[in-house]
C-alpha cells in the first residue's frame, strides 16, 4: 500500500475527532456544513490523485513503501530539498549520493531475501534447525559477503558490515577465527569487496566431512593459486613482494594516494593468514585426513591399492566403485568425490611419490592441502549432479535462445551498419555453440548414479567445470610476472568471469553447472530474477563475440566486412566511453601507461535482454515468490539483479571513493529501461544515447 493511502486513512480519522467535539466542543452548525463540504472536496481530490497515480505508475508505486526504510521514498515530484536518497542513488549516481553508494541500497533491500533464501537452502525450516550442508552454507557466506560494500577504509560501514557478517556467521553456528576478530574482518572485507583482491585472500567456510557445531568455522586464507606460487619456490623477497603487491593493486583500480596504505593492509592480513594457517594446519590435516580415510575404508574396500594408486582397471575394483555410489549418503559421496579427484590430480601431476617412505606424512599433508585448496568445489558435485538435470538444462537453453534471438533482431535493425556487416554479425550470434551444464557426452544423464556407472574415473570434468576459468585466469595473472614480463598482462582481463561463464574460440560459450543453480538461476522461477541474473551473464558472453579481435571474424575464419567509419563507431558504442575523463581513468595494464581494453559496456544488448525478459514474463504463470523484494516491481527486480552483478566489477580510481565511473552507476545512467522502471529524469540520458546505446 502506498504512502498516499496511509494519508487518506489518517485524514478522516482526524476529521471525525474534530466533529465529535473532542477538542473545543461541537462547532456551530454553519461551520459544521462548511467543514463537511471542505472534507468531501479534500477526499475527492485525494481519490483523483490516487487513481492518476495508480494508472501512471502501476506496480512502481509500491516502491514508496520500502520495508525497513520508512524514511526513504522514491517520489520524483518532491521538492529539491526533499528529493529522496534512493532516487538520487538510482538516477544520479555516486557523485550525487555523497557517501551512500548504490550497493548500500541494494544490500539493504535484498538482505532479508538473501538470508531467508540461503537459510532455507541450508536446512532451516519452521519445524526446527537442521544441520546445514557443505555447499549451501559456503554459498550463503560467499553471497552474503558479496553484498557488503565499504566506503572508506576506516569508515563506519566497515565496522557495521564486519559486525553484521560476524553475527550472521554466529547465528549459523560458524565462528570467525582470527586474532584480531572483527577489526581484521573489516580490513580484509575492504580488500576483498572494494578492490576485488581475491587473488591474495579468500573467505573460506571450512567443514570436516561430518561437521559438528564446534568444528565448523570461517577464516581468511590465502588464495590457492598464491599458495601454489609459493610452492613453486618463487623467490619473493621483501622488496620483490612489495613490488608485486603494487602491480596487483594498480590493476585493481587503486588510486596512487592509497597505494602505500593498502600495501600495508595486504601485508598485515597476510601475516595473520599465515599465523592462522600455521596454528590450524596440523589439526585440520590430521582430523580431516583420518575422517576421509575412515569413510573410504568402510565403503570403498580394496579400490585403493598402495598409498596413492587408484585401482579401477580391475573388474572387482570397478564393481566396488559402482556399488559404493549406491550406499554412500550425500555427504559421504562428496567426501569420496573430492578425495577421488584430488588423488587423481596428485598422481597425474606427480606431486606426491607413490612410495614416499619416511616423508609419507608430509606427502599426505601436501595432497590434502592441494585437494582442499584447489579442488574444494568438487564437493559441490553431488549437489549439482542431483539438480542440474535435463529439465533444468532445457529451461536454460530456452532462455539462451530467446536472448540470442533478440540480439539478432537488434543487429538486424542497426540501420547505421552496412547490410553485409549486419548479416555477418547476426550469423555469428546464430552459429554460437553453447556448452551448457557439462562437456560433450554428459548432457543427458539424470543423476549421480548414472554418472558413476558411465564414468568411474574423473576425466577432467570437475576441474573444467568448477575451477577451470577461475584458476586459469589467476594462473595467467601470476605467470605474467615471471621474468618481469609485465607487458604480457595486456592480454589478461582482471575482471571476474561471473560463475565461469565465458566466450571463447571457436565461437562458443561455456556455461558450467555451477551457474545453473541458485542464486543465478531458479528452476521455474520468476523471469525477472532469472533474466536479471543469469540472463545478464549470458548476454555478456554473447556480446563478447564482438570484443577486440573477435569483431573482425565471423566465427568460421572469414573476415567481417567492416567499413572504417562504422568500425570506429561500433568500437565506441561497444566500449561506451562516455567522456574523456572516464577514458583516462581506465586502469593501466603496464608501467608505460597503456590502457587495457574495457569489458563490454552494460548498455550493449540491454534492449535485447529487456525484450527477452518481457516476453518471458508475459507467458509466465508461476507466480512471484520474491521474499524480501515485495516492495519492488518486476521491472525493478530485473534491473536490481543486473546492477547487483555489475556492482564490484570495475572501479574508477580517479573518483575514489565514490566510484563515479562504476559499471553499476553507468547502467543506471545509460539505460532507458532502467530510467523508466525507477522513474528517473530522462533528460540526463539524451546526450549519451548516440554513444552508449547499442542493441
Automatic annotation (TrEMBL):
Its cofactor is Zn(2+). The chain crosses the membrane at residues 31-51. Residues 506-686 form the Peptidase M13 C-terminal domain. Keywords: Hydrolase, Membrane, Metal-binding, Metalloprotease, Protease, Transmembrane, Transmembrane helix, Zinc. InterPro entries: MetalloPept_cat_dom_sf, Peptidase_M13, Peptidase_M13_C, Peptidase_M13_dom_2, Peptidase_M13_N. Residues 1-23, 574-599 are annotated as: Disordered. One of its GO terms (cellular component) is plasma membrane. Residues 1-10 have a biased composition (Basic and acidic residues). This is M13 family peptidase. It comes from Rhipicephalus microplus (Cattle tick).
Amino acid at each position: 500500500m502506498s504512502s498516499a493511502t496511509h494519508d487518506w486513512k489518517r485524514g478522516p480519522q482526524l476529521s471525525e475527532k474534530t466533529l465529535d467535539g473532542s477538542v473545543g466542543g461541537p462547532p456551530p452548525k454553519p461551520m459544521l456544513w462548511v467543514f463537511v463540504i471542505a472534507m468531501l472536496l479534500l477526499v475527492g481530490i485525494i481519490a483523483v490523485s490516487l487513481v492518476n497515480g495508480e494508472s501512471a505508475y502501476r506496480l512502481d508505486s509500491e516502491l514508496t513503501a520500502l520495508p525497513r526504510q520508512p524514511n526513504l521514498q522514491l517520489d520524483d515530484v518532491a521538492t529539491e530539498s526533499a528529493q529522496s536518497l534512493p532516487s538520487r542513488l538510482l538516477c544520479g549516481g555516486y557523485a550525487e549520493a555523497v557517501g551512500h553508494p548504490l550497493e548500500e541500497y541494494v544490500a539493504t533491500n535484498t538482505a532479508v531475501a538473501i538470508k531467508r533464501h540461503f537459510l532455507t537452502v541450508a536446512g532451516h525450516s519452521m519445524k526446527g534447525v537442521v544441520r546445514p550442508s557443505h555447499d549451501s552454507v559456503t554459498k550463503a557466506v560467499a553471497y552474503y559477503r558479496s553484498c557488503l560494500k565499504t566506503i572508506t577504509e576506516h569508515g563506519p560501514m566497515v565496522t557495521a558490515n564486519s559486525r553484521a557478517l560476524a553475527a550472521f556467521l554466529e547465528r549459523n553456528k560458524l565462528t570467525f577465527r582470527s586474532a584480531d576478530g572483527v577489526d581484521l574482518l573489516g580490513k580484509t572485507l575492504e580488500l576483498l569487496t572494494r578492490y576485488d583482491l581475491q587473488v591474495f585472500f579468500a573467505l573460506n567456510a571450512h567443514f570436516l566431512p561430518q561437521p559438528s557445531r564446534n568444528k565448523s568455522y570461517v577464516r581468511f586464507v590465502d588464495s590457492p593459486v598464491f599458495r601454489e606460487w609459493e610452492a613453486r619456490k618463487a623467490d619473493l623477497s621483501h622488496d620483490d613482494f612489495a613490488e608485486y603487491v603494487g602491480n596487483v593493486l594498480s590493476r585493481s583500480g587503486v588510486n596512487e594516494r592509497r597505494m602505500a596504505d593498502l600495501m600495508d593492509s595486504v601485508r598485515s592480513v597476510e601475516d595473520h593468514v599465515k599465523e592462522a594457517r600455521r596454528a590450524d594446519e596440523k589439526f585440520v590435516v590430521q582430523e580431516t585426513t583420518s575422517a576421509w580415510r575412515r569413510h573410504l575404508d568402510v565403503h570403498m574396500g580394496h579400490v585403493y591399492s598402495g598409498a596413492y594408486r587408484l585401482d579401477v582397471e580391475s573388474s572387482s575394483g570397478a564393481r566396488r566403485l559402482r556399488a559404493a555410489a549406491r550406499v554412500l549418503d550425500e555427504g559421504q559421496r562428496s567426501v569420496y568425490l573430492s578425495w577421488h579427484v584430488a588423488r587423481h590430480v596428485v598422481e597425474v601431476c606427480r606431486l606426491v611419490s607413490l612410495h614416499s617412505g619416511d616423508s609419507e606424512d608430509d606427502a599426505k599433508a601436501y595432497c590434502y592441502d592441494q585437494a582442499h585448496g584447489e579442488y574444494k568445489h568438487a564437493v559441490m558435485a553431488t549437489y549439482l549432479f542431483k539438480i542440474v538435470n535435463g529439465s533444468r538444462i532445457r529451461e536454460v537453453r530456452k532462455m539462451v535462445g530467446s536472448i540470442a534471438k533478440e540480439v539478432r533482431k537488434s543487429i538486424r535493425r542497426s540501420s547505421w551498419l552496412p547490410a553485409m556487416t549486419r548479416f555477418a554479425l547476426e550469423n555469428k550470434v546464430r552459429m554460437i555453440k553453447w556448452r551448457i551444464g557439462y562437456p560433450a557426452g554428459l548432457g543427458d544423464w539424470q543423476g549421480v548414479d548414472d554418472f558413476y556407472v558411465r564414468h568411474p574415473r574423473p576425466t577432467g570434468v570437475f576441474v573444467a567445470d568448477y575451477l577451470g576459468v577461475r584458476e586459469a585466469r589467476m594462473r595467467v595473472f601470476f605467470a605474467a610476472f615471471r621474468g618481469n614480463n609485465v607487458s604480457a598482462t595486456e592480454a589478461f582481463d582482471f575482471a571476474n568471469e561471473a560463475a565461469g561463464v565465458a566466450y571463447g574460440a571457436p565461437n562458443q560459450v561455456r556455461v558450467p553447472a555451477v551457474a545453473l543453480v541458485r542464486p543465478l538461476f531458479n528452476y521455474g522461477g520468476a523471469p525477472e530474477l532469472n533474466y536479471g541474473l543469469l540472463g545478464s551473464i549470458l548476454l555478456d558472453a554473447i556480446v563478447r563475440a564482438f570484443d577486440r579481435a573477435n569483431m573482425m571474424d565471423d566465427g568460421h575464419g572469414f573476415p567481417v566486412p567492416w567499413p572504417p567509419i562504422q568500425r570506429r563507431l561500433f568500437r565506441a558504442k561497444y566500449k561506451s566511453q562516455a567522456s574523456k575523463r572516464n577514458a583516462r581513468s581506465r586502469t593501466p595494464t603496464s608501467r608505460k601507461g597503456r590502457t587495457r581494453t574495457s569489458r563490454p559496456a552494460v548498455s550493449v544488448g540491454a534492449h535485447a535482454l529487456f525484450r527477452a525478459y518481457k516476453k518471458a514474463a508475459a507467458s509466465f504463470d508461476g507466480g512471484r515468490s520474491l521474499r524480501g523484494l515485495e516492495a519492488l516491481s518486476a521491472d525493478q527486480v530485473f534491473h536490481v539483479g543486473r546492477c547487483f552483478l555489475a556492482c564490484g566489477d570495475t572501479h574508477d580510481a580517479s573518483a575514489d571513493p565514490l566510484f563515479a565511473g562504476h559499471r553499476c552507476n553507468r547502467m543506471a545512467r545509460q539505460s532507458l529501461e532502467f530510467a523508466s522502471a525507477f522513474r528517473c529524469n530522462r533528460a540526463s540520458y539524451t546526450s549519451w544515447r548516440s554513444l552508449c546505446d547499442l542493441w
